[in-house]
Amino acid sequence: RRRLPPLLLAIALLGSALKDTGVVPDTPLRNKRNPLNVYFVKLAWAWTLWLLLPFITLTTYQLARSKFLYGRTRSVLLVLRRLSALAVGTAVWYVCTQLFVYIENLTGECSIAAKPGETPRLYATKHECHQDSGVWNGFDISGHCFLLSYCALMILEEVAVLEGLSIDQNSKLRVVINILFVSLCFLTMIWVFMFLCTALYFHDFSQKLLGVLIGLSGWYGTYRFWYLKPFSPGLPLPNIPLSSKKYSYSR
Fold this sequence. Notes:
This protein has 251 residues and is mostly helical. It has one domain. The protein is built from eight helices and two strands. Strands 1-2 form a two-stranded antiparallel sheet. Helix 6 packs antiparallel against helix 7. The longest helix has 36 residues. It is elongated and about 75 Å long.
């Protein structure tokens, strides 16, 4: 978790440098219609949300019952509190992506060949420009760099709960959590790989740098600041007595 933020910044810097030098080979990943981009990156928040939803629910409930010895009602309340982190994440995703669209529309203009005898039309948004087959030139903050960095860091924060979880080796719950854990790890690898592809093939350096900085800010502002406060969704793994470490979840 500590190494990923500087790694993402390094990828953005080095990827941009390689892109500018023109040494990056032409691969199918340069095409925005490649399967990883269409079926995963375009739905990055949905993938992250729907895998974290059952993972947080199961692990938090088990943690509350086995470590804190909470009753069912209190355990459910803790689950709901932790699930509110997904609502916060959704709000961060929505507000930031809408802000990016607003900035691009505000700073852009449409390049389109005017037809003879027609008065050139003024376009207010990128969408209107594209409807008439124009090219919109605006400051396009990298939504991919923002979202992929934010999702990857959020997943790493949430799976940290396994360090304090104790589950019977032969239980069905353990199998389900293992499947979710492996799926989340696989998803994180895809996010980091596609972050690399974005750095190598798309956007200007400033657009990528600003995107990843906003993603890191969203993660830091929640998991490293707000979630430490009492009135918050809280951290995935609260302080657990050292004596319980020997019962930690074995992966």
